[in-house]
Amino acid sequence: MAYAMLFLVVCGGLSFTPPCIASVQTPTLSSCSSAQVFSVSAVSITNAKVGQTMIFAYSGQLMTSLANSPELQFTMTKKASGDVIPCISDVGSCVYKLCGGTTSIERQIGQPWNNECPIPASSYSSSLSFKIPSLAAFFIGDGNMHLKVAAIDGGTVVGCKEFDFKVWLS
């Protein structure tokens, strides 16, 4: 309890400087597919720091139901070089099942539709929280990243957005 009070006093004195507030990024989204069955309208990224728990929040619209083994394909690259960041501890360039997912992130993604197919057409807003593994520091260079998120149903891209964001190393 004493440490919590000390933290609040120090943060009050520092007046909105890290580590007292989490950094929030609201990247500009670009379409990377002509198909727009799934359209993301907003993304925010909070606390994108190696070794910390990051929150990825989104809102969007699914125009038709998805039922043919839908998945999200994340392709994360270094902005400067285009080098692909591997999937490490379920974070990075990973593929996530949207129905029947078994990993923590897949269950978080599928929570709005109870992790079951078909996924009904609707508006969705949700968030994912996950720890950025310390090992990521060896792969992300200066932390300036590019993320492409493709929604796939039956092997066909049904929506895609991409954007730049920053991961802080310390």
Automatic annotation (TrEMBL):
Annotated signal peptide: 1-22
GO molecular function: enzyme activator activity; lipid transporter activity
GO biological process, one term: lipid transport
Gene Ontology terms: cellular component: cytoplasmic side of plasma membrane
Coiled coil: none
Keyword entries, A-Z: Signal
Protein name: Immunoglobulin-binding protein, putative
Organism for this UniProt entry: Ixodes scapularis
Lineage, broadest ranks: Eukaryota, Metazoa, Ecdysozoa, Arthropoda, Chelicerata
Gene that specifies this protein: 8032955
